[in-house]
Write a sequence for this structure.
């Protein structure tokens, strides 16, 4: 009994960080290095716990932004949203590196109106207008999250990788489509365009369903926002970093949650 | 032995005036598989920093299509692609060509002429990468020093996708 009790406490302690962790939002490209006269890729977008299995919610394609190698946005093609995943194609008509991103910006307001508890969720810029006159005890949390992946047609370039200065962004130091198992790869994280120091970065290889341990690899950004990961094997990796701060757009919001994740392909040597 | 000793000084004297030769033999193994496609192959000379000093050969499917036929699959030669294959615009004169059948493929190069060009003296590696549709991928490396002091025959064998790779150098 005593033994069981200890076990239960240990389990409860383990459950806390897991419960705090939200589902993973991800993009999964069919290829990350392409060539030829008319290259296309197809991409899955979904939210799930297991990587990269679409078994929970589809990605919201209204938040999709694709930046072409000339730095300009382009449209996805053949987009479709199903029960568990969204799918779209990208026609890579330019030579260079494409950034495929889902940018989620939101505000969650809870308030009381005539003694009744109410909630509003939406774009932060709409909030002031959306809240009714007479709303009391307004509490607002702002959030900004980016989910990205990168594909190069022929020779890579970095026009699409220029940071916008908003939320967490990743700037590759090692070319982002040149990742090889066993070779260290470095990146920089920026928070609102400035080096994001001391952030913990977690990378998880796909196919989590087929192993018992999550096998996370971790790194922490230095004062320049730089971190280095050495991929234990080839595969698609989901790289994630989160933080919280008070740099809110909306004055009513006391806190901002900021998240970044990228799907990176690592090839065998 | 005696004859060798006598000819050696003659060869050494001849070096500056004669163009150095490089012969490369790539053996593509005969594979008994249900679905066989000739492999894509790239042959190049690599500097110590992994960059390409000379692109010697690229063999890929030449059949034309909207997708650019074979060029679509060139990234499958992923070591070559990453270290500079993608910087080249196919086709390349006297370098790119059709895939080749199983057997010994001999390539002859001459110093000062394309595609070998004038290779500065130094340490290099001859790299051969092969990737086969519905098959595997393999890389064979043969280190050498250029220019060769005397006639040199070096080589290495692959295990599955490549057989013997031979490099014959003549000063």
């Amino acid at each position: 009994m005593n033994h069981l009790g200890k076990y239960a406490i240990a389990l409860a302690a383990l459950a806390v960080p897991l419960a705090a962790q939200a589902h993973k939002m991800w993009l999964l490209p069919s290829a990350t290095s392409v060539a030829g006269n008319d290259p296309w890729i197809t991409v899955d977008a979904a939210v799930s716990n297991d990587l990269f299995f679409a078994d929970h919610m589809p990605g919201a394609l209204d938040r999709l932004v694709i930046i072409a190698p000339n730095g300009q946005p382009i449209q996805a093609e053949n987009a479709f949203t199903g029960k568990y995943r969204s799918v779209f194609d990208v026609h890579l008509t330019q030579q260079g590196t494409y950034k495929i991103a889902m940018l989620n910006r939101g505000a969650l307001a809870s308030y009381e109106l005539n003694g009744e508890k109410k909630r509003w969720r939406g774009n932060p810029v709409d909030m002031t207008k959306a809240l009714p006159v007479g709303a009391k005890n307004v509490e607002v949390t702002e959030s900004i999250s980016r989910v990205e992946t990168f594909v190069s047609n022929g020779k890579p370039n970095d026009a699409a990788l220029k940071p916008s200065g908003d939320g967490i962004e990743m700037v590759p130091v090692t070319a982002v489509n040149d990742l090889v198992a066993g070779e260290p790869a470095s990146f920089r994280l920026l928070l609102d365009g400035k080096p994001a120091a001391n952030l913990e970065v977690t990378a998880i290889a796909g196919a989590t369903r087929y192993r018992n341990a999550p096998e996370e690899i971790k790194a922490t950004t230095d004062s320049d926002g730089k971190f280095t990961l050495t991929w234990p094997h080839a595969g698609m990796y989901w790289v994630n970093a989160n933080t919280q701060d008070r740099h809110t757009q909306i004055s009513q919001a006391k806190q901002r949650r900021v998240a970044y994740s990228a799907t990176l392909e690592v090839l065998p040597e | 032995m005696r004859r060798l000793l006598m000819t050696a000084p003659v060869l050494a004297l001849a070096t500056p005036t004669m163009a150095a030769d490089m012969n490369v033999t790539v053996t593509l193994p005969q594979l008994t598989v249900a679905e066989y496609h000739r492999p894509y192959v790239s042959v190049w000379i690599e500097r110590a920093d992994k960059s390409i000093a000379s692109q010697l050969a690229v063999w890929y499917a030449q059949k034309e299509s909207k997708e650019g036929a074979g060029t679509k699959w060139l990234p499958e030669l992923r070591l070559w692609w990453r270290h500079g294959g993608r910087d080249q615009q196919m086709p390349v004169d006297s370098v790119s060509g059709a895939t080749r059948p199983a057997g010994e493929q001999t390539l002859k190069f001459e110093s000062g002429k394309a595609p070998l060009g004038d290779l500065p003296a130094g340490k290099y590696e001859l790299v051969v990468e092969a990737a086969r549709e519905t098959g595997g991928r393999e890389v064979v490396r043969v280190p050498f020093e250029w220019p060769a002091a005397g006639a040199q025959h070096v080589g290495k064998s692959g295990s599955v996708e490549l057989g013997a790779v031979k490099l014959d150098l003549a000063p």
Observations:
- Helices of chain A lie at 2-20, 127-130.
